[in-house]
Amino acid sequence: MTHFFQWTLYLTVCLLLLQSVVLRSAEPETEPRPHIKIRGIYGGAPTQLLEQNRTLPELGVNAIFMGSGSLTQDRIQQLKQQGANVFAEFNTMHVTSYLKEHPDAAPIGVDGKICPPPHGWQGICPTHLGYRKYRMDEFRRVLKEYDIDGIWLDYHHSHASWERAEPDMPDTCFCERCLKQFQRDTKTSLPDAPTSQLAQQLLGKQKAVWTQWRCDVFTDWVREFRSIIDETRPQALLGTFHCPWTDTEFEGALKNKLAIDLKAQAKYVDVFSIMPYHARFNHPQDPAWISRQTAWLGKYLGIKGTPGERHKIWPIVQLSDWGETVPVEQVQPVLEHGTRLPATGVMVFRWGSLHPQTDKVEAMIKYYQSIKP
Ligand SMILES: [Zn+2]
Known about the structure:
InterPro entries: Divisome_Glycosyl_Hydrolase (IPR052177), GH (IPR017853). By secondary structure, the chain is of the alpha/beta class. The protein is built from 15 helices and 9 strands. Helix 12 (about 290-300) packs parallel to helix 13 (about 330-340). The longest helix is centred in the middle third of the chain and has 26 residues, at about 205-230. The protein is globular and about 90 Å long. Zinc ion binds near residues 125, 127, 175 and 178.
């Protein structure tokens, strides 16, 4: 009887120990992650919390990303006094209002006609000189006027809708200006034929040259953005919010549809903010998709996340509901995958729609606090 009692006690203890191990492994990660330098919020300052006299250090937040149109000197000073970096988001190819007075800047489709905006996402012809000057002037003004720590390109790609499970990426731009510049830059000549026929040729036997030329046009914008930073605020970082697909997903759409040549842009860009919105992009049950895409990007660009490296990867991860909901239980795993190397910073998308969901906000704060070195 005594023996039996001892065995029962022994087994009970073993079971309890096992249970505590299982429970612990399911608990949120609470280890500091000193490789993560940036714990950010995208979409403006968390004024709702600051008004409750909570400070950014108390929230574990040390970076705010805000639209370049909503910057004010007072706001920047207020955030910097709390030890935060302030980064501006800059709209490059998506200022729709420009088309009202300059309809000739609308992208032209394979049929030679204005290509309607897919799902309402309006792009602009990348060789329109007036539009380019308009954006460059605005970029310069923002950098001159505001004491920001960096500026992030947003929507720097061709006329397309890809921030969703099923993208719509029409082939553009076959306007006369683009076709002329293509021939000049690549030293080729196109026959005197209707646009629809030329488009067929460019997407057929000349596809490789056409694709690379389009990429080079978009990269050249990045070169000019960089040169403006170097002239006006050289210590500021140049970042880009970009499509999270690999080079082979959607049949190589990153280059041959969106005209994003990440390797070429790396010459000018400091920080790559890949946008793995897991819920929005058809991976609602798979937050690990975030770290898989980040790992791919690191490999592709040769970024390891080691101290002193020039290039950095700071993903923007989805916590707010957009199309798909993100349950509160996912806040921890999303941030856990978003802060794995080679990432050295992270930010959450996006304050405007996230802040009313206070349970998720508190879960974010808890995670940010837990990884603070
Ligand atoms: Zn064009």
